[in-house]
Specification:
mainly alpha, two-stranded antiparallel ribbon, 9% strand, rod-shaped
């Protein structure tokens, strides 16, 4: 440990900062992936009906 100005500098402190940034980035990536997965599962309502089926089932489109 060496003194630089008013602070003490630990020899491994720079390596710890890099490891901390890597852990933070990985954590954010995993949280983002989890949120995306959950949102996809919650919002999934099935495939939309084909355009012809929508046109046939629309009210007011019955012939007459």
């Amino acid at each position: 440990m060496t003194k630089t100005g008013d602070r003490f500098h630990h020899p491994g402190a720079d390596a710890d900062k890099g490891a901390g940034k890597a852990v933070t980035c990985l954590s954010l990536l995993l949280v983002g992936a989890g949120v995306t997965f959950v949102a996809d599962r919650l919002l999934m309502t099935g495939p939309p009906p084909p355009p012809a089926a929508r046109a046939l089932s629309s009210p007011g489109m019955a012939g007459g």
